[in-house]
Structures are given as C-alpha cells and as structure tokens.
Amino acid sequence: MMGLPLAFTEPLLLIGLVSLPVLWWLLRVMPPRPRRIEFPPTRLLFDIAQREETPSRTPWWLTALRLLAAALVIFAAAGPIWNPQVGATGSKAPLMIMFDDGWSAASNWDIRIRAADELIANAENDRRAIALVPLSEPNRDITLMPAGAARVALRQLAPKPYSIERVDTLAAIDRFLKATGDCEIAWLSDSVDTGRGEDFVQGLAKTIGDRSLTVFEGGTSSPLALVAAENAAAKMTVKVLRTDSGITAGTVRALDQKASPIGEARYSFGPQDKETEAAFDLPVELRNDITRLEISGERSAGAVQLLDKRWRRRAIGIVSGATSETAQPLLAPTFYLTRALAPFADVRLADKGSPQQGITQFLDQKLPMIILADVGTVAPELRERLNAWIDQGGVLVRFAGPRLAQAEDDLVPVKLRKGGRTLGGSLTWEKPQHLATFAADGPFAGVVVPKDVTVSRQVLAEPDAVLATKSWASLEDGTPLVTGEHRAKGLVSLFHVSADMRWSDLPMSGTFVEMLRRIVDMSGYTAKPGAGVASEASTETVAPLHILDGFGAFGPPPATAKPLPADYRDRATPDHPPGFYGPAEGPLAVNTLAAADRIAALNTASLRARHATYTNAEPRDLRGWLLSTALALFLIDAIIVAVLGGGLAALLRRRAAPAMIVLGLLLAGLLSWSPTPARADSAADEFAMKSVSQTRLAYVVTGNADVDSIVKAGLSGLTLFLAQRTALEAGDPVGINPARDELAFFPLIYWPIVPGAPKPPQDAINKIDAYMKQGGTVVFDTRDAVEAPPGDNGASQTPGMRTLREILSSLDVPELEPVPREHVLTKTFYLLRDFPGRFNSGQTWVETLPREDDDDSAQRPARGGDGVSPIIITSNDLAGAWAIRPDGQPMLPLSPGEPRQREFAYRAGVNIVMYTLTGNYKADQVHAPALIERLGQ
Length: 937
What we know:
Blueprint: E1 6-8, H1 20-28, H2 60-77, E2 80-82, E3 95-99, H3 109-125, E4 130-134, H4 147-155, H5 170-180, E5 184-188, E6 192-193, H6 197-208, E7 213-216, E8 225-231, E9 236-241, E10 249-255, E11 261-268, E12 275-280, H7 284-288, E13 292-295, E14 304-306, E15 314-320, H8 333-341, E16 345-349, H9 355-364, E17 369-373, H10 380-391, E18 395-399, H11 402-406, E19 421-422, E20 433-434, E21 454-455, E22 457-458, H12 467-470, E23 471-474, E24 480-487, E25 490-495, H13 510-522, H14 531-537, E26 541-542, E27 544-548, E28 554-555, E29 564-565, E30 579-581, E31 588-590, E32 600-601, E33 610-612, E34 620-621, H15 623-644, H16 649-653, H17 663-671, H18 682-693, E35 698-700, H19 705-725, E36 734-736, E37 748-752, H20 762-773, E38 777-781, H21 799-808, E39 816-818, E40 845-847, H22 855-859, E41 871-874, H23 878-882, H24 901-918, H25 920-926, H26 928-936
Parallel strand pairs: 3-4, 3-5, 5-7, 7-33, 15-16, 15-17, 17-18, 18-25, 35-36, 35-37, 37-38, 38-41
Antiparallel strand pairs: 1-2, 2-34, 6-32, 8-9, 9-12, 10-11, 10-13, 13-14, 19-22, 20-21, 23-24, 24-25, 26-29, 27-28, 27-30, 30-31, 39-40
Helix pairs in contact: 1-2, 2-15, 3-4, 5-6, 9-10
C-alpha cells in the first residue's frame, strides 16, 4: 500500500471513511434558537461576573478528535496487516529453498525458519513440490518432497557451530537443477562472508542460469563474533567483530567453569569500524578463572570464546634476599626477573620487608609460582609451609647468590657444596665457562644457546647417581647450570647462578627469557607455550568432552565429533566442533573462529535476483492496536466534555489547607547529632614524633630490668661522647619492642642477648629482617666474652651465643667474617685495630666483603645498603663499657681493665655510629687512590 509493508484483509470496509464528512456535519448541527423576550429588570444582571460559560457550539478540535477515533475504528474493521506474507513469484515450478545454517545464522534462526515456513505454505497453496538445501551439508542428496514432509525436515534443521563452506554445495545444486529443469529458487542468506563468499556468488550465478532467484537478506540484526582473547599483563582483552554498522555498542560477559558471572566489559564501535575490543580490568586470579566469554544477547557459537589453561596468566611472586638497593635498581635481581617474566606472567614483588614476610605474603595469596633470588635461610615453620605448597602443585624457582651459597636447606633439587665456585678470577686457572647445548629430551629442548653468555661463578652440586637426571642445563665442563625435580604435584628448580649480572651474563640474554617461559609452560598456565612443551604433547589426542551447538550452548558430543591432537590450535570444523576436549580437570578449548579470522558482509549484488527482507516474514495484525487507540480517544473525549460542562469545576475551586510546619524541628534534631571522628592512637603518634624529632639510638627492651637499665645508660653515655667529639648531637636513646614499634626511625639498634631468654615472636623477627634489608644495622651483643671456654671454637659455645644462634636461625643472615684490617669500620672516624667493650677478648663480626678476585668488585663497585653491614655481632659488652651513672662516673668495671680500654670502647661506638650514618661516603674515601687512578686513565 503506497510503498508501505501494509495490507488489509477486508479492504472494502475502507469505504466507510467516506462517511466522515457526514459525521462532521452531524456533530456541528445546532438546536433551534429559543425565542427572545426582553424583561427590563434583567439589565441589573449584566454587571454580575459569570463563574462559568457554556460554549454555543462544539470546538473544532474536539470534533477532529472524535473523527480520528471513528477513522481508527474503520481501519481496524478493515483488518490491517503490517508486513504481510510475500511469496516467491507465484510460479508453478518446484521450489528449492537454500539455507545458510552456519553459526552466523543462529542469532536470527527463528526468523529464518518462519520465512521458510511461509514459503512452504505458499508453495503448498500452489501445489508445488519443495526441496530443502542446507548449505552446510555438501554431501546431502537434494530431493523434492511435498509440503508436509518439507515442514518436518525444516524442523529438524539446526544451525551448525562452525563456519560453513557454501562453495562445496554448488556441485549438488548443479546436479539437482539439471535433473529437475525449471525450478524457482529462494536463498535464505545470513549476509555474512566467513571466507570464499564471492566464489560462491559467482558460482551460483552460473549454476542457476535464467531461473528465478529470490534472496532473503537484511531486515535483521547482523551477527557479532568474538576472536583473539588475550590475557595481558594488566587486563584480558577480546576482539568483537561485526559486518555492518547496525550494532554500535554492547557488553561481553565473562563466566567461570560453573557458568557463574565473573565480570562484564563494554565495547563500542566507531562509525566505520568492523572490529573493536572489550577489556576486562580484573585481578589476575579472577581472570584465570574465566573459561567462557560471550556477547550478551547474542545466541551463536561465534559469539562465544572458550578459554582453557593456555589463556591463564600465571601470577608469579618474586622475593629477593639481597639488601634493598634503591640507589641502583637496574642492578637488582628483581629488575632482570621482572623484565624477563613480564611478557607472559603477572609479576608481583614482595613488599619491602624480610624474605620471610614476602614468602608468607605470597603463600597467603596462594600464588602458583614463587621465585626466590638469593634467599638463604628460611625459618623452619615457613619451610614446612613451602613444602606443603609444593606438594599441592606449587612451583618454586630459586637463584643462587652469596646467601644461598652459605645456607643449608632442602628447598633445592640437589645437594649443594658450600661456598660455590669462582671462574676466571686472579687466583684461579679456570676461565669463565660457556653454556652447553640443551638436551633434546629436557624442558629447554630447542632453545638456542647463545655463544656470548659466560658464567664466572656458580654454586656446585654434590655428585650423585641422580644428578644427571636432575640437570636441565649444564656448562661446557659438565657442571649443572639449572637443576630441577618434581615433588608430588609441584616442582622445584634451581639456577646455579645469580639472577643479576654478578655471576653470569645469562640474565641479559634472550635465552634467559625463554628458559623462564619454559618453566612457566611446564605448569600449563600460559597462552603461548614454548616449542619444547608443545612438541611433547603433539602425539597425544584428546576426546570431545562438552561441545557447543550453533546457539552457543553446551551439550554432549555428537557422534560425528572426533578426537583431536592435544596441541590443536585451529578453528572448529565439522569433525572437530567447538567445545572442550580432554579431561575435565584440564580440558582443551576449540573455538568457532581462529584468532586471525575476520567476517565481512556478503555481497550479492552481482546476482540477477529479486531481493526480499526477513521483515516480510513477520506479519503483524494491527487491529488490536487501532481499537485500543480509538478507545483511548473516546475516553479523552468524555473527560474533555466533563470539564467543559462544569462537572469538575467545583472540585477545582476547593482550596487546600495551609501547609504544616514540622520539618524545622526534625532538621534541628538531625543537625544536633554529628559523629565524633575516631581519635588516632596518641601513644603511637607520640612515639613517632619523639623518634623523628632527633637522630636517636635505639635498643631492644629485653624485659630484664638490670640489663635494660645498663644498656640505656650505656647508649646515653655514647650519645654524650658523640656530642663531645663529633658534630652529631643525638637525642636520648629509645627502648623499642620490635614486634610493636616502627623500626625505620632509627639508623642503629643495639640488641643485648640475655642467655636463656625465649625466642622473640616471628613477627618481631620478620620486622628485624626487613629493617636490615632496608639499610638498618643491628648490633647483637652477647656480653659473654669472658665466659667462652678455651679453644678455637670456644666463643660459639657460650650460653649467649647459643641464644643468638636460635634467633638468627629465622633471619636471612649474609655470610659473616671477623672485621678485616682494611674494613671501612676500622677507619670511619678513629683508626682502630679492634673493638673492645667491658671485655676485649671477643671478636666482632660483619658481613663478608667481596674478595678482590670476585667479579663483584669489578662489575659492581657500589654494594647494596650503602656498603653498610646490616648486622654486627660482638661479645665484648659494648654498652657496659659506655654506661655511666648520673654523676658521670662509669657504672661497671672493665676486664682486664687495660689503660684507655674505656676510651677505645667509646671510640669503637663512635666508629659504629658513623659507619651506619655515612656508609658509601667513607668507603669512597678509603678507595680514593683507586678512584684517582681510574679518573687519570
């Protein structure tokens, strides 16, 4: 009707519209005018204002409203149909209906079925035979059937969950048309070209010749698809594809294995964009739980992206045992490890603190993989937690270093020799070693071995019968470079070199990145596995587990689904439909589209055909809508008549009562109450203000009143001596509880050891460990040098030393040595040969300096923590020698009481304090001749 998709079942009833002018005239007819008789007193009423007036005739707009309602009733009686059914051409020849039944037809499948059903109905009215041709089945025989059989066959069709190859059906269509002769053809197209669409259109034009062809396309929303999901470092992204500009925005949902929603991500297309991206900004733990991405409101297998363990991004925690190096972050082990792991893993660095705290943090977070870089001693209770975590599937990777070379624990795959091995130094004939070729059956098989990587130091494994089976990589001389072993469900691996450049060039090479990738791949948590791992699985096959149908819903595997290789990465096919394959605990995902696939609009303009839209297959009866509108207009007319007649006037004249005034009291009551903010802990604030107002020395409160009073008096005496002899005017010493107080305020902490005292809680030990790692120094004083039994090892047998060893067993302590003669501690302020206190027979221990033949001295001139040893151990009772009474006299006698012993004890204290405060400054002064020589070059 006039170009609109509108038809009437009873068009003759539209003649009733001619009666509308007559109805207009009837509504305008006025009754006879009454006789007018003048009454003189009536003039007195003219000055009275009338409250309401009655019009003399019906307003024109009210008449038009009534006519519109009457016209709607007439239209409804004529039986209007929007989008009436349209047949093909009215021919008497057989009808062949071609179906696009791939995934791209699923979103509007009901509309296509309804269109085919109407075509079958029209053909049945004309008594024509029908042939159904699903384009996904090239081997299906095409036969003519009556309308009833065609309807049954139509109901048995369902969209396929993969892309169809239309070209493959041209041969069967050609055979059918040659056998049938004249035939009318209808193609129910999905308007999507998933590949070779142009070839099919050209081939179809040649095959059908001059036969009548009707192409149904358009009128429905174009399908959307998902491809190329990627679990990147900060977020998970997936590409959304479209064929035209119909849909501009939407939502992608993320579901877990139980189909529970995890998150949603919005996407939007530009005016000319055919693809866009949806991003899920979620924690890596939640992203790793995603097994299905789907477009909301889109029912097709192409709108679903299945994810397996290859898309999971492994969260890896890194704990470093090295001293904090804020001045040289590019030399830290964490820098090289972070750069190597960032492309394929979510890297997390431990919070600034002790290694014990970092390990506990990552165990509490249930990370699947932890890397320990030069972490030596691990507390026994924490070692048990690590072993249990490994047995449950955790992966522990360790890197060697000075601390690990001196430690002994079972968290390594092989037993290590203590001390390590140096190659290429001035005191050895051995030269730095190159890497040997990786074994063909090892985890690093196929990785290119760089020729420019050398190893100058390593930790050695004790030879045994199983060392060869645990060696994953070796040097040219056969000594292991990387070892590893499986423990229960987990894995332990050790790099026998450091994670930085001190011991080898390996961290600067691409081989280092690939080796770490392979270790991560062995756990199966990355989207891009290495070649060595993939090749191991290439011979395995996995059976179908859960298969997607064309609408994107899971179902049991069909009989035609076949097993596929475990490393299958292609798009779905008829033999391998999309879904999950393999065991339920670790299935393999196969998707409808591959990551590189794209979709486009199918161009059928070259076909000599009649084009129809699917909206023609959706008739809608408009009678109910028209009658409802007419009824509403009649109701409006009745209300208007009541208003104009004065029936509602009385109600409108009534005035409302004055407004009540109550809100003021309520507001006043609400404003009178206001919450009082919580007050900060005044004691903690006072402690912090006191600690930062001046530089202060601190001591650990032991709980023994006599010891604590002597130590406080000793540090007070040292503070006074510092003010008299140096420029440092420190404040009064502060007693601290490591488990409760903040330690970062103090450059030096003095810890007197009380024999037999209980071991501090692990929280206190962790805080002390973190304090030392971040540049602080702790002086442990056992105060028992005179109690040491005779003998070379007598000093280690005292009760105080045994108590100290128990404390240090939970600390990550570096390798120690007696203070050497050339140590900067002997020259910081005074020139000293030893560090006496109340006693002078005990030794003072500090962190071991790099040897002259060690590469550390050449490649790394600046040491971590400003070159200050984080720990100093003595047994000479320094605080006892410093302690003074209120009258300024010494509190305790000395032993053996040599002349100037107390003076040298004070000088030792000054050197220790200046050493902790100046660090590299004094170290540079010691090495001034070497610096001047290098500058001269």
